[in-house]
Write a structure and sequence with these properties.
6 helices; mainly alpha
């Protein structure tokens, strides 16, 4: 016994279709992007260029450039860590807000503030660890090209420092607002008013 689903399409006139092209375009707002977003975008396109060059030389020219894979990997590292800075700024990292539904709002406010502080401390500590590590490998070179690895690790260090600083900005904004994404997630995803 199978049931066929019948799709019903409402007839649309050519005038209705034409009207959709006459609607005004919404203005583009790029104010929500930080400097790290634009740097991440530039590195992302460098990575895309390296991957394309690798594909082209391997499969079209049958003579692969070995260095393109290593450059793409280091670009990916940069994209991940610089992209994380934007995630901290926009509070887009994964978080669990289930517990906040079960406790009182004052206790939730204290816990959310402690989470904000812990996030800053963790990012600062990770920056310190990467700084120490980059000091240990400051003279190591990349495998396929004669270029030091230290700029990559310094970029990771800078990313963690920026994450800590953006974490401070988020903490201050949450204190001024009186709630965070943990306490009222609907206010941040548009499902609830302000």
């Amino acid at each position: 016994m199978s049931r066929e689903t019948v799709e019903t399409h409402m007839p649309v006139s050519s005038e209705e279709i034409a009207r959709t092209f006459e609607e005004a375009e919404a203005p583009v707002d790029l104010s929500g992007h930080g400097l790290e977003d634009w740097v991440t975008l530039a590195i992302f396109w460098m990575m895309c260029g390296a991957v394309f060059l690798q594909f082209f030389t391997r499969y079209v020219l049958n003579n692969s450039f070995a260095w393109t894979e290593e450059i793409a990997i280091y670009c990916l590292v940069a994209v991940v860590f610089l992209g994380s800075v934007g995630c901290v700024r926009q509070t887009r990292h994964i978080h669990v807000d289930f517990l906040y539904r079960m406790i009182s709002p004052p206790a939730g406010r204290v816990m959310a503030t402690l989470v904000d502080i812990a996030r800053i401390v963790v990012f600062a500590y990770l920056a310190l660890l990467v700084w120490r590590y980059s000091a240990l490998i400051h003279d190591e070179r990349m495998t396929t090209i004669d270029f030091p690895k230290s700029p990559v690790f310094l970029l990771v260090f800078a990313s963690f420092v920026l994450m800590a600083l953006r974490g401070v900005q988020v903490l201050i904004a949450n204190i001024r607002r009186g709630y965070s994404v943990l306490e009222r997630p609907g206010a941040f995803d548009g499902s609830q008013e302000g």
